[in-house]
Design goal:
Blueprint (H helix, E strand, L loop, with lengths): L2 E4 L4 H13 L4 E3 L6 E5 L3 H11 L9 E2 L3 H5 L6 H10 L4 E6 L8 H4 L4 E5 L4 H9 L3 E2 L14 H8 L5 E4 L10 E6 L2 E6 L5 H8 L4 E2 L22 E3 L10 E4 L13 E4 L6 H17 L4 E4 L7 H13 L4
Parallel strand pairs: 1-8, 4-6, 5-9, 10-11, 12-15, 13-14, 13-15
Antiparallel strand pairs: 2-3, 3-7, 4-7, 5-6, 9-10
Helix pairs in contact: 1-6, 9-10
EC number: 2.7.7.87
GO biological process, one term: regulation of translational fidelity
Catalytic activity: L-threonine + hydrogencarbonate + ATP = L-threonylcarbamoyladenylate + diphosphate + H2O
Length: 324
């Protein structure tokens, strides 16, 4: 079983233990403001291979590389003016930029799935401190079995991956609760690859232009979270429910009533007040709780497709997609 260290009790011990396991070439679970990450040395192909093996993740699916700060990021990727403005405005924070990889970068091609671009983020808080102490970028997808619900607490990680990893660094519940927003600049145009914890409207405000969105899924995987089926519980997921059948789990939003809720196996509400930030923070934890209830189907009531609602609905559509 994985060793767990509470960083609120001994931050220095957590950094030293984390650096030791990372330096030995093994992945560890780290807290970030978005979700918990399964982190390993982005310059070490053996360490990166351990991430894919631990998660059961397809190797054509690239990994986000996390940096301590913008200066570290500049050593590995080339920044255009729009991307630089976004980095200066939102890092550290829940924004990933897909950028051209510099030829001299030590990031291994296994982390980028052989692409000539790299997804880069600077996380808030402890994760940034750990990366700074380690001195190298960390490749870090979400700390869960590939395709399943992301982890927003150390307990989630332990229940899923605890027997497959050596160390979990525990900082309590993730405050954002959904993965980072991923954007890419192409020919001066800004494209949204994955909605996430930073609302599109904030990005557009700084960039001074609209985010372009794909009308249909691309066959090319340019960034994490682009697989059609992803973030899936064991139960079937049903969206925009106006009624719930007996024995189904219901995850509601706001004060809208759902017919048949009294006969549901479990009823959870992402936010009674209709607060999308609260809903995002609760999303993956409530999906896990509904799945653990034994219900064969989880019904979600409608969630507004604006602000953080865009990221929530993206995760729900992928969770509800047909599974191969």
């Amino acid at each position: 079983m994985a060793r767990s260290i509470d960083i609120t009790k001994d931050r220095q011990q957590a950094i030293e233990a984390g650096c030791a396991v990372l330096g030995a070439g093994f992945p560890i679970a780290i807290p970030t403001e978005t979700v918990y990450g399964l982190a390993a040395d982005a310059t070490n192909p053996i360490a990166i291979a351990h991430i894919y093996e631990t998660k059961g993740r397809p190797r054509f699916n690239p990994l986000i590389c996390h940096m301590a700060d913008l200066a570290m990021a500049e050593r590995h990727a080339a920044f255009d003016p729009v991307s630089r403005a976004l980095a200066e405005a939102f890092w550290p924070g829940p924004l990933t930029l897909v950028l051209p990889l510099k030829p001299e970068s030590a990031i291994h091609s296994l982390a980028t799935a052989g692409l000539d671009t790299v997804g880069i983020r600077v996380p808030k808080g402890f994760a940034g401190e750990l990366i700074r102490a380690f001195g190298r970028p960390l490749a870090a997808p979400s700390a869960n079995t590939s395709g399943k619900i992301s982890a927003t607490s150390a307990a989630h990680v332990d229940a899923d991956l605890g027997e497959r990893i050596r160390l979990i660094l525990d900082a309590g519940a993730s405050t954002v609760g959904v993965e980072s927003t991923i954007v890419k600049v192409e020919d001066g145009k800004l494209r949204l690859l994955r909605p996430g914890g930073l609302p599109a409207i904030e990005i557009e405000r700084v960039a001074g232009q609209k985010l372009l969105r794909s009308k249909k899924a691309s066959a090319a995987i340019e960034a994490p979270g682009m697989l059609a089926s992803h973030y899936a519980p064991g139960a079937t997921v049903r969206l925009d429910a106006t009624r719930v059948d007996a024995g189904e789990a219901l995850i509601a939003f706001g004060k809208t009533s759902v017919a048949g809720a009294e006969d549901a196996r479990i009823v959870l509400n992402l936010s009674q007040d209709g607060d999308l930030a609260e809903a995002a923070a609760n999303l993956f934890d409530y999906m896990k709780r509904a799945d653990a209830s034994g219900a064969a189907t989880i019904a979600f009531s409608a969630i507004p497709d604006e602000g953080l609602g865009e990221a929530i609905n993206d995760r729900l559509r992928r969770a509800a997609a047909p599974r191969e």
